[in-house]
Each structure stands twice: as C-alpha cells, then as structure tokens.
Amino acid sequence: MEDFRNIITRGYEQTSVEILSEFSGEKLLDVGCNDGSLTVCIADAVGAREVYGVDVSEPAVETASERGIDAHVLDVSERELPFPDDYFDVVYSGEVVDYITDTERYFAEIRRVLSADGVFLLSTVNLASLHNRLALLSGGLPFPMRPENDIVHSDEGVGLYELADRVSVVRLDDLSTALHRHGFTVSRVEGCVADHQHVTPVKAAVDWLISFVPSLSYRFILLCHK
User: In the chain, how many domains are there?
Assistant: First the structure.
C-alpha cells in the first residue's frame, strides 16, 4: 500500500501523469516543457511515439532535446505553434497559463493543433485557494505572487533556468469560463496540493484534505476536449 506521506504530498506532476495514463496517443505536445523530465513521463504514460515540446528557455529546451524530445524555443504568447492543425492526440501544459501574456493566442493555438478526439490537460495555481484567502486576511500576498515561490523545479536543480515573472493567477471559475469561450469542454477537475518541500506532516495532511475541494485547493488540474 502506498505510504500515507506519499499520498498527501502527491503533486501536480504525479496527478497529471495518472490522469493522462487513462488515455493513449501517438503524438504528444508539452507546451512549457521545461527540461523535459515530466514530458518523458507523460509520453510513457500515453504511449506516445512522437514527443514534442516548446518552452521559452533555451537551456531548458537543450536539456529536453537531450532527453529525446523534439523541443523548440518558442513563446506561445508571441508566435504560432509550428505544427499542423489537428495534429496532436495529447497536449499538456503544466503551470504555464499564469505566465502567458496573450492567453487568447495560447488557447487558440492549443485548440488548433489538438485533434478532434484529443485531450488537453493543464494545471495552474489557484488565486482563490484557502491558502491565499488566509494570506490576504493576514495582510500578506497570495503565495503564488511571492517572488520566492516563482522558481523552476526540475531534475537539473531548483531555479536553474531563468523564468519570467507570473503575469496573473486565476480562479477556477475564471479559467473554466476562458476554456469554454475558446471551444473547450472541461470534463474533469482535480484539486491538487502545494509543492511540499519543508512542511510538517500535519500541514501536508490539511493541504491534502483541502485539495478535495478544487475551488479551494492550492492548484487545480483540468482535463479538456474540443
């Protein structure tokens, strides 16, 4: 049986892989692939034979390429994705939308390259999480807007790659509305815990319990279809 500590600290990466393992697809795109460490896990989970990634960081893309990913340096806020229409069976974009300056282009491009029966999974932090509500009540900034929390976690190290500042943090209802407006159907919503690095088991357990209510959880994951 899985250790309780592992259960209550399950992050968005593991949850995303578990959700996508229910699907299969030969062509995978990771929008915001970072160094590709999570991308290869998703590729294995869905059985992808063609694995692509885009990211704004050149060093991250170089590392992703070394992992066998067809990775490109690209900011989807500024440029179209270099792929044909209806090409991908699975599109993943984890912890990215809050850094996008042009979400209209971002969602439109992802929908364009997603096949008719494909799946799109994204995750992001939640502005209206209980954590952030309590932070505001105590006079502090929401946790995702604090500079010390705006860092990259990867197999190569924490904060190794330069990362643009967060542009915005949204509520679950706001993101769901934006997805519907761009022609997506949201079929599943999962709450998810914060990234626990140095917290007590009690705090981790409370966070885990809150994650069962996605609108209050620290972050959420949405599974979408065209």
Answer: 1
